[in-house]
Amino acid sequence: MLPLSLLKTAQGHPMLVELKSGETYNGHLVACDTWMNIHLREVICTSKDGDRFWRMAQCYVRGNTIKYIRVPDEVIDKVQEETFKKEEKRPMVRGRGSGRGRGGGEDGGGGRGGRGGRGGRGGGRS
What we know:
By secondary structure, the protein is of the alpha+beta class. It has two helices and five strands.
């Protein structure tokens, strides 16, 4: 399971975000992007030592400040079900080609004679 697919599925669900600084943010996930920046609503922020609290209507957390994220188990189960359904729908198709990379002829160079590689002055000349 990929972290971003987990966050996309967790939209609308409550979550806890702990920052590298030690502050925690409890709220409902509104949105996230590919850098794991997070937008939360109905947020309660707790200080590092745990003795101060702030209530905010919404907040934005930059992804590189996040230490960890806690999401409900129901979200994790939902992601696992979705990935299982995708795997079932995907037909079993073999890849095309012989699996030998570019060219793949008997000379190993894709029909380039004895030169090999890209350009250069390989052994094809006398």
